[in-house]
Amino acid sequence: MMPDHSVLVIVDVQNDFCPGGSLAVRDGDAIIPVINEQTTYFSRVIATQDWHPEGHVSFASSHPGLQPFDELDANGISQTLWPDHCIAGTAGARLHPELNQAAISLILRKGTKQHMDSYSAFFENDHVTPTGLHGYLQELRAKELYFCGLATDVCVFYSAMDALQLGYQVYLLADACRGVDAPAGSADRRLQELADAGCRIL
Ligand code: VGL
Ligand code: ZN
Known about the structure:
8 strands, binds pyrazine-2-carboxylic acid, single chain, 4 helices, 6-stranded parallel beta sheet, alpha/beta, binds zinc ion, two-stranded antiparallel sheet, Rossmann fold
């Protein structure tokens, strides 16, 4: 059993990021048994959900003439455009049904504002506006954070990077993550960036 100050953070294991979803990550659902096993070792497990309003700034469909994976300058913040995904309250936004939700004590929803995206579990994409997760973890005296989930090169990456910056000891459970990896090789580069910044890849 892991000590009480170690927390498992499950990032965005939602239907839309799994096969059949609107922004499916290849083999995204293959990590679920691995994550479920990990939950048995932690006394505290939290999860995040990407949770967007309809017409969200990150949706290509909100920008006539632009396509998914195009880039946009949204009020000074560079924004990759995606297919519509994880619309609040829809089936695509639900946690995957095979994920062991019984183990999860907090679910944090992010990306809820129309005009700003939030890849990280800690800060919105202005890198300033907090989600509240750091305050929650501080009150619990959490010191070590173990990250897993989807997608390695987007929300897991930005969450783990912010966690390092905030002073946590950060681990990434590589077998319990999958990346969008477009272009191919970008997920591995992100892992290397995390390792260089002090994240331990397990
Ligand atoms: C994510 C793209 C857009 C993620 C969220 O959870 O990694 N990726 N929104
Ligand atoms: Zn999103």
